[in-house]
Amino acid sequence: MVQLLKKRGWGIDRVRKHQDWNGKYCPHRILSEGRWDEVKAAIEVELKALGGKTTSKKAAGALTQSKKAILFPQLQKSMG
To answer: pTM value?
Structure first.
């Protein structure tokens, strides 16, 4: 994951859980143990060590709920 973030010039702000996209409680063990922030912090440490950016230039480029509805209407129907 860190390599992908660095390659694309993305920061830690682009890291998402499956839950953010489709509502699935995933990664379930990390979430149930309350370690999501810890995992993101570890990714950020590695990203810094590789000289990657910690924040993205375009955080606004992330998909909003309205963009998801436009791009993935079938997902919207199955969740709504």
So the answer is: 0.64
